[in-house]
Design goal:
Blueprint (H helix, E strand, L loop, with lengths): L3 E6 L3 H16 L7 E7 L3 H11 L3 E3 L2 H5 L6 E4 L6 H10 L3 E4 L7 H14 L3 E3 L7 H11 L6 E9 L16 H4 L3 H17 L2 E9 L4 E3 L7 E3 L5 E8 L4 E7 L8 E8 L2 E6 L5 E6 L14 E4 L18 H17 L8 H20 L10
Parallel strand pairs: 1-2, 1-4, 2-3, 4-5, 5-6, 7-12
Antiparallel strand pairs: 7-13, 8-11, 9-10, 11-12, 13-14, 14-15, 15-16
Length: about 375
């Protein structure tokens, strides 16, 4: 992999995740540390741009993304801005000859999408949208099985993506609640991911029948404000769909799913088998095979969990046995330790905690050897 300079445009929550991933790439794939480098950051808020540069360890920041596009050390731009700005920035990046990685969805509407596609195709630049859920190990395995014909003819499918991020009526208006800026609500925000997953696994959509609703129609214009403003995007979408191959399905999308954090699920039912995937357990894929014997007390018929884990080609660390998100636990653990060290207090787990674990392990070994109950106190 050749050395690449990244220009990050926009620095909100998701941009930090992008930045974290760029920094991690050399570790995951055993590459030199400078293989991927964030060369600069742009944000419309100058203070935010300057603070971002400090977080990212890059010397260049600007409030004008065009200045970032002028830099020779920027070969790829990563666009993390509200949806209504995608077209403008993509076209400017194309004119500057930059490759483009962009947050979903592509555009505000189909016409914008057409213009964007025409521009990138004519320029010959590389381009990709961040439909990152495709890269869950369970989803990758599901696609592999489908392409191998495991399901046979697909009869139907269903999917849901529920979050509870907008259930409070006190949550103020933001760009994601404005049609002029976001283009849509839950459908654009969450539904685009779910639709892409079905498309990735099963192919093109043929037709859809949907119901959408805005459950909280007015919200405070700012945090704590008494004045209310209208919400003109959807909170919930219920969709029936028929794919190009005539398979029928349903999709449910909501930002009003009380209690849900990121409840993303896809189920597919075919003549030879069925598949179930849940983002809550992304290292596993549930699989049903009609060829399994179905006999009382002797058969193996039923859904079984198939291990998929992190077998990404060329991946060095974390290794394949470690579930997605495993590396994040290192980040949190190390941060908590450094935080505690700076405050001269003990971090958890302590060496004392480790010693207790050691006692338990040794007790287990002794128990296996002596075939008896072993009390932990026996080892003290």
């Amino acid at each position: 992999m050749k050395k690449t300079g990244i220009g990050l445009i926009g620095y909100g929550g998701v941009a930090r995740v992008h930045a974290m991933a760029y920094r991690a790439i050399p570790f995951h794939y055993a590459l030199p540390a400078d293989t991927v480098r964030i060369a600069g950051v742009a944000d419309v808020n100058p203070k935010a741009a300057e603070a971002a540069a400090g977080e990212l360890g890059c010397s260049f920041w600007t409030a004008d993304y065009r200045r970032l596009l002028e830099r020779e050390d920027v070969e790829v731009v990563d666009i993390c801005v509200p949806n209504h700005l995608h077209e403008e920035i993509i076209l400017a990046a194309v004119a500057a000859g930059k490759h483009i990685y962009c947050e979903k969805p592509l555009a505000m509407d189909v016409e914008q999408g057409k213009r964007i596609l025409a521009a990138v195709e004519q320029a010959g630049v590389q381009h990709m949208l961040n439909y990152n859920f495709r890269y869950y190990p369970g989803v990758q395995r599901a696609r592999q099985l489908i392409e191998a014909g495991f399901l046979g003819r697909v009869f139907s499918f269903r999917g849901c993506f529920y979050r509870s991020s907008y259930i409070s009526p006190a949550k103020p208006l933001s760009w994601r609640l404005s049609k002029a800026v976001a283009g849509g609500g839950a459908l654009f925000d969450l539904g685009s991911h779910l639709i892409d997953l079905v498309y990735y696994l099963l192919g093109e959509f043929g037709s859809v029948l949907s119901t959408v609703d805005t459950l909280i129609k007015q919200r405070p214009v700012a945090a704590g404000a008494q004045e209310l403003g209208p919400v003109d995007v959807d909170d919930i979408v219920l969709m029936q769909a028929r794919l190009a191959d005539q398979a029928l399905g349903t999709l449910e999308i909501s930002r009003m799913g009380t209690g849900a954090t990121n409840d993303l699920k896809v189920e597919i039912f075919g003549e030879k088998g069925a598949l179930r995937f849940s983002a809550d357990d992304p290292s596993w894929l549930e699989v049903y095979d009609v060829r399994d014997p179905d006999q009382p007390l002797g058969g193996m018929s039923g859904f079984r969990k198939v291990q998929t884990v992190s077998r990404f080609e060329g991946h060095k660390a974390p290794d394949w046995s470690m579930a997605p998100g495993f590396a994040t636990t290192f980040v949190e653990s190390q941060y908590r330790f450094l935080q505690a060290a700076g405050q001269e207090r003990a971090a958890s787990p302590t060496f004392q905690d480790g010693q207790h674990v050691q006692e338990v392990m040794e007790a287990a070994l002794r128990s296996a050897l002596e075939q008896r109950w072993v009390q932990i106190a026996e080892l003290r």
